[in-house]
Amino acid sequence: MTQSRTLRCAAILGLALLCLGTVGTALASPVTYQVTVDTASASNPPAFVNFAYTGGPTATPATATISNFSGGTLSPASPAVNGLSLSNQPQGVGTSQLYSIVPSGSKISFNVTFNGPELLNPAVGDNSAFDFQLADASSNPLTQPPLLFPSAPDGGFTAIEIDTGNLGGGGLTSVTSFGAAAAASVIPEPASIVLLAVGLVGLGAFPYLRRRRPVAA
Questions:
Q1: Tens of pLDDT along 27-71?
Q2: Which of 97, 162, 178, 182 could link 130 by a cystine bridge, Cβ 3.0 to 4.6 Å?
Q3: Which of 65, 71, 72 is CA-nearest to residue 111?
Q4: What is the pLDDT of residues 157-201, one digit of tens each?
Q5: Strands (E), the chain
């Protein structure tokens, strides 16, 4: 009885750890962020938006794909913003897409999904940057005043930056918001949520099963 219970405990612990480890792999690639920018406090409404994904000089290939865009009508109609796929190649350059926008409200939101070898096994120093930028009809940055995105390194155009790779040995992805009006958060994959729940339940049950004692005959 004791040996059988020990084997069951070991099996449950192993399954829990396997599920939690698989969650880490699942979150590595692909990774989806929801980006939200609120321009309500800007004195000059956006007239242009730009999506850019730039790879570093040693960047491993990766893509950034846009979906669920809302907040305005974009031109040109082709390429469509939903399904737009940007590459971080060629190294040091990457790709970008500029649209004019007729806002339908003060909030702009979209999802961006990163995928590719750079997110799975990046070398230290391998880094790429996804930037979402806005400008008014005169191609100036948005202001409150002062600037809506005051800490942006390009003078106020970039609302948010999502870095992928392993710059300096850090995490696979990181977010920098250049003003309180912009935010981004990870959207967990459904399979990852299930695996995480199974893993946590297994870890919670393990101490309980170990404490159980056989009933004397």
A1: 456 899 999 999 999 999 999 999 999 998 988 899 999 999 999
A2: 162
A3: 65
A4: 999 999 998 766 556 788 999 999 999 999 987 644 444 444 445
A5: 31-38, 48-55, 63-70, 72-75, 85-87, 95-103, 107-115, 127-135, 158-165, 173-177, 182-187
